[in-house]
Design a protein that fits this description.
With about 130 residues, this protein is an alpha/beta fold. The chain has one domain. About 35% of the residues lie in helices and about 20% in strands. The strands form 2 sheets. Strands 2-1-5-6 form a 4-stranded parallel sheet, sandwiched between helices. Helix 1 links the parallel strand 1 and strand 2. Helix 4 packs parallel to helix 5. It binds iron/sulfur cluster (SF4). The site of iron/sulfur cluster has 12 residues, from helix 2.
């Protein structure tokens, strides 16, 4: 079973209320068993929601409590929501014994390069192999 960022499957869970469908991942989802997750929704944030970014480090630093997640315009602190989303994804990953995940690039939750997102950091710490796309 593979954990997948929901927006890659065409689910409209992005901050702007849209999705980011990826044909290859949709094909993969039809051939394998995938578990779609949106950490920001699981963290209790609405859709649409203000865009956010990691300030002062990366997702590992947010997990360690040394960096924060802020909204781009208002600089509102949404770190608690991002941590809750990461913890819920961890719980889902453990439940389904997930070994691989496909994540959406350039997201403060799901990204891998150039900056690891909060949920992706939590998944890496669980030993899950991460593939990034989008
Ligand atoms: S990148 Fe992650 S957090 Fe953002 S919409 Fe997609 S699944 Fe949700």
């Amino acid at each position: 079973m593979i954990l997948v960022s929901s927006c890659l499957l065409g689910i409209c869970c992005r901050y702007d209320g849209l999705s980011k469908p990826d044909d290859e991942i949709i094909k993969l989802a039809k051939q394998s068993q995938v578990v779609p997750v949106c950490p920001e929704q699981l963290g209790g944030l609405p859709t649409p929601r203000p865009a956010a970014y990691i300030s002062g480090g990366d997702g590992f630093d947010v997990l360690a409590g040394t960096a924060k997640v802020l909204t781009v315009r208002q600089k509102a602190d949404v770190t608690k929501n991002f941590l809750q989303g990461a913890r819920e994804c961890e719980r889902i990953a453990r439940f389904f014994d997930i070994k691989r995940a496909v994540v959406k690039s350039r997201s403060p939750s799901c990204g891998l390069n150039p900056q690891v997102g909060v949920t992706t950091a939590a998944l890496i710490l669980l030993g899950i192999d991460i593939l990034e796309t989008g």
